[in-house]
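In response to reviewer comment 3 from the previous cycle, which asked for concrete evidence that the modeling workflow produces usable outputs, we include below a single protein chain processed end to end. The sequence was submitted unchanged, and the resulting structure tokens are shown without manual editing.
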Amino acid sequence: MANTELRLYRYFVTLCEEENFSRAAERLAITPPTLTHQIQKLEKELNVRLLNRKTKKKLQLTEAGIRFLECSRDVLHWADEAEKTARKAARGEIGRLEIGYMITTAYSGLAQRFIKNFQNKYPGIDITLHQVSTVNLVSRILSDELDVGFARVLKQFPTGLNGFPFYRAPVILALPGGHPLARKSGTIDPKALADETFVSTSVGNDFAFTRHVEAIASLGGFTPKISKRAEDLTTVLTYVSLGYGIAAVSQDMAKCHIPNVTFKKLAAKAVPDVVFSFMHRTNESAPAVKVFIGAMRELALKNEVLRGN
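The workflow returned the following structure tokens.
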């Protein structure tokens, strides 16, 4: 029975639906004798009688035939579903996506917006999110642990990785709540930061991305002093809250409500921007991932580079 051809199930179900060999054969585009032979072949393979041949009335099934008909309909249904599923997977309509993201992209709401729009269009694709630092995001995409990611723009993409910017937001200052500049109203002149100590991201991050502390120092005409470094911005802000120094972050991080941290805008004609990009493998082959990349590229081209206010 395990070797029974799928067409034999279809022949049998069609015969039962038409209740006549001639009509069923016409529907199947074969001759009545051929259909008769195929039904006999099916019975021989199953070693059971499916049709009651002792009556000259309309087609009559044996008890085995009745039960087999029920199961045959299930077989054809699931065979059809299997074909549809395979085609959907090939088109990228179903599958899995492992998406990495930097915490700032979550606070901006953009990652959620992009992913939600995609889910509405492709509900058959299961998405799992992973919060990671940008440096780890790059390595995990290249090692196939993650498929794509949202993070800060790299100075240069390594071999095997590609991406494009999708969002930019101005740099702001994060200061301990009791800091004199935190209590000051209005914006902060970069020159007033010359004697301040900064908390920044790791050296690896600084090598890979734009150095926002250095950009602010350049505006103020001083060399920055770094007291602490951290792999992620949540830890950077935690250091700020503990009084280790001030930090330069994207304005979207102001939505991160960490006690004893005050956010201030910079007073400058050209405030540095934090630019975020969508990253993916250069030669991606998975259909669902390719569909997501295409959707993100279309969105980026449509909106150019979105800007936070």
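The domain at 6-90 is CATH 1.10.10.10 (Arc Repressor Mutant, subunit A). We consider this sufficient to address the reviewer's concern, and the full set will be provided in the supplementary archive.
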